[in-house]
Write a structure and sequence with these properties.
Blueprint (H helix, E strand, L loop, with lengths): L1 H15 L3 E11 L3 E6 L2 E6 L5 E4 L2 E2 L10 E7 L6 E7 H12 L1 E9 L3 E6 L4 E5 L5 E3 L16 E8 L5 E7 L31 E12 L4 E6 L3 E6 L5 E4 L2 E3 L9 E8 L5 E9 L6
Parallel strand pairs: 4-7, 11-13, 16-20, 17-20
Antiparallel strand pairs: 1-2, 1-6, 2-3, 4-5, 6-7, 8-9, 8-12, 9-10, 12-13, 14-15, 14-19, 15-16, 17-18, 19-20
């Protein structure tokens, strides 16, 4: 049963790789709905939620802890519109998270509740692992132990596995130090995105959107549109974007708030919707 459970996790992780972006970024701006990041040389607006995991200095953090100019590592669900921020952390904490989630860690048990094992590491940092009856627990020389055998203050060695929820599951737990072996390469790609917006509609990789312009952010080379009076999308522009106002060639000043528009777009590797053509109508509206 345990092997079956682990197998499902592996399958879910591989399915998720194509829709999850893990990258370094810089906080360019903080909005009511999310964060604008600089990814590469271009801005990327992402939305966050209560499910977003935030970390600073090896500990959970609040949204307000991140400031404009911060250099961060992020995990983004790129196939949602707009892209969804699943996790954000300072660079040092991100490296620590990778180690904690993948390697055997020596720790002291602080407490255990019905679903989480809370431990403290030698450097003083703390972490909470999800633990279930499927976790492989071996303590006090027993070939098979249970959660009731785990006691506060005990020194343990815990091996984690990252879940699609971004919780870390206790794969193995023992009080015997593991035999040293070569360190495996650290790969930053993992997890399936589970947070879903009930109003979200997955757009094709390229196409057209009939919408209303609701905001323009020229300093970010971006504007927002409203589709069907229900869905908001962030549209990015570049030097190749062409603008038209009432069927005549124009420039970016054609992006008039509340005007109807038709946006021809293509999604890039970071999940951004890049406009190749923006047709704005302030007179006769398109059919």
């Amino acid at each position: 049963m345990r092997l079956f459970f682990v197998g499902l996790l592996i399958v879910a992780t591989h399915l998720a790789i194509a829709e999850t972006l893990i990258t370094a970024a810089k906080v360019l701006g903080i909005t009511e709905k999310g964060i604008v990041l600089t990814v590469g040389t271009e801005p990327l607006a992402v939305e966050d939620s209560a499910a977003t995991k935030r970390w600073i200095s090896k500990a959970p953090a609040q949204r307000e802890s991140f400031k404009v100019g911060d250099t961060v590592q992020v995990r983004i669900k790129t196939d949602s519109d707009p892209p969804l921020l699943r996790e954000i952390a300072d660079s040092a904490t991100w490296k620590w998270l990778e180690l904690v989630r993948k390697s055997v860690m020596k720790a002291t048990v602080e407490s255990l509740d019905s679903r989480m094992l809370h431990v403290k590491f030698a450097d003083g940092s703390r972490f909470s692992y999800r633990i279930t009856e499927k976790s492989d627990i071996k303590l006090s020389g027993k070939a098979k132990s249970g959660m009731t055998d785990i006691t506060a203050g005990a020194t343990v060695y815990v091996k984690g596995r990252l879940l699609p929820t971004l919780d870390t599951w206790v794969d193995e737990l023992t009080d015997v130090a593991p035999v040293a072996k070569p360190a495996s390469g650290a790969n930053a790609t993992s997890t399936a995105a589970t947070a879903k917006n009930s109003k979200a509609v997955k757009l094709p990789a390229a196409g057209k959107l009939e919408a209303k312009i609701i905001a323009d952010m020229p300093n970010l080379k971006m504007f927002d549109i409203l589709v069907d009076e229900a869905r908001t999308y962030h549209i990015s522009c570049n030097q190749e974007t062409r603008y038209f106002l009432n069927s005549k060639a124009a420039d970016r000043t054609a992006l008039v708030k509340n005007a109807k528009c038709t946006v021809t777009y293509k999604r890039d590797q970071y999940g951004r919707l890049i406009a190749s053509k923006v047709e704005v109508f302030t007179e006769n509206q398109p059919d």
